[in-house]
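User: Can you recover a sequence for this backbone? Please restate the input before giving your answer.

Assistant: Of course. Working from this structure:
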C-alpha cells in the first residue's frame, strides 16, 4: 500500500498561494489567516486517495471558505463608518513579502486600487475573477470551486472583467517606476513643502482614510492637490504633537508607503498610489484592527 503524503506538508507547500487567494477575495490579512486555518482542518478530513490535483483541490476548499466569509463581510461593510480600505499587506520593492506572511501576490493585483475595484463585484464574480485572471485556474477548476457550471463561470468572469475595465484607469506604477516620484513626495512631506507636494499631486488626487469609527479619521474622501497637501502636513504635525514621531518608509500592497509610529506604537500606514508620474491617491489605514498583523 502506497503511503499517503503528510497533509500538513502538502498544505504547507501550497500555503503561499492559498493565502493569496483568500486575501484577494477578502482584502483582509486576519480573515485570510482564519480561512486558512479552517481550510486546513477540512483538508485533514479529506480522503486524499480521491484527490487528483492537490493544488486545485486546496484552492477549492479555500475559495469556498473565503466566499462564506465574504458574504458576511459585505453586509458588515455596508454599515462601516467612513471609507473601507483593505488591510495593508507588506511587500518589498520587488512586490514580495520579506518576512512574516508568505504570499505570491505581485504587480497590480495586490494594489489597494485593484482591491477596491474588486469590492464592486459580487462575491461570486470576485472569486471567479481572482481565480481566473490573477491565478490562472482553468474554468473546470473554478466551476468546482464556486459550485457552478463552466458556462456560468465564463459568464461571471466576462461580467467581472467588464466591470473591472470600466473602473480601472491607467495602471498603477510598478515599485521601480514609483520610487523617484515617491522619494520627492516623501521629502516634500517631511520638510513641510506645500508647493512641492502640490506639484506631485494629480489634479484629481484623492485621500481616503480608514479609521473604522474606532479612531479619528476623515470620513469622506478629500479631493484636490491643495486640500490633500494641507491635510497631509496637518496630520503629520498633529502626530508630532501627540508624542515622539517615527516615520518609516516601506512598501505595502505593492506601493511606496509610510508607516507612522507615535511613541513606538503603529498609528497608521499610508500607501501612495502613483500613475503617470504623479500621485493619484493616498490610502491611510488607521483602524487598529487592521494594523495588528502589520510588520514595520
Amino acid at each position: 500500500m502506497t503511503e499517503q503524503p503528510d497533509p500538513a506538508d502538502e498544505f504547507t507547500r501550497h500555503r503561499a498561494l492559498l493565502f493569496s487567494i483568500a486575501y484577494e477575495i477578502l482584502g483582509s490579512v486576519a480573515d485570510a489567516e482564519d480561512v486558512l486555518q479552517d481550510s486546513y482542518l477540512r483538508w485533514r478530513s479529506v480522503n486524499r486517495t480521491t484527490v487528483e490535483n492537490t493544488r486545485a483541490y486546496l484552492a477549492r476548499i479555500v475559495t469556498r471558505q473565503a466566499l462564506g466569509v465574504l458574504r458576511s463581510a459585505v453586509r458588515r461593510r455596508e454599515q462601516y463608518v467612513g471609507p473601507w480600505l483593505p488591510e495593508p499587506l507588506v511587500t518589498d520593492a520587488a512586490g514580495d513579502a520579506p518576512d512574516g506572511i508568505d504570499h505570491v501576490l505581485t504587480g497590480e493585483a495586490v494594489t489597494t486600487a485593484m482591491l477596491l475595484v474588486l469590492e464592486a463585484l459580487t462575491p461570486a464574480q470576485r472569486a471567479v475573477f481572482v481565480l481566473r485572471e490573477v491565478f490562472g485556474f482553468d474554468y473546470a477548476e473554478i466551476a468546482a470551486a464556486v459550485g457552478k457550471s463552466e458556462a456560468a463561470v465564463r459568464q461571471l468572469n466576462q461580467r467581472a472583467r467588464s466591470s473591472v475595465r470600466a473602473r480601472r484607469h491607467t495602471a498603477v506604477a510598478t515599485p521601480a517606476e514609483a520610487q523617484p516620484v515617491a522619494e520627492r513626495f516623501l521629502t516634500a512631506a517631511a520638510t513641510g513643502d506645500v508647493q512641492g507636494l502640490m506639484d506631485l499631486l494629480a489634479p484629481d488626487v484623492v485621500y481616503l482614510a480608514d479609521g473604522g469609527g474606532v479612531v479619528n479619521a476623515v470620513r469622506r474622501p478629500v479631493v484636490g492637490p491643495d486640500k490633500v497637501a494641507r491635510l497631509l502636513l496637518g496630520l503629520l504635525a498633529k502626530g508630532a504633537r501627540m508624542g515622539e514621531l517615527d516615520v518609516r518608509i516601506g512598501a505595502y500592497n505593492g506601493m511606496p508607503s509610510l508607516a507612522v509610529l507615535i511613541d513606538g506604537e503603529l498609528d497608521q500606514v499610508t500607501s501612495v498610489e502613483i500613475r503617470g508620474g504623479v500621485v493619484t491617491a493616498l490610502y491611510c489605514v488607521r483602524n487598529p484592527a487592521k494594523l495588528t498583523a502589520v510588520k514595520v
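That completes the design. DSSP finds eleven helices and six strands in the chain.
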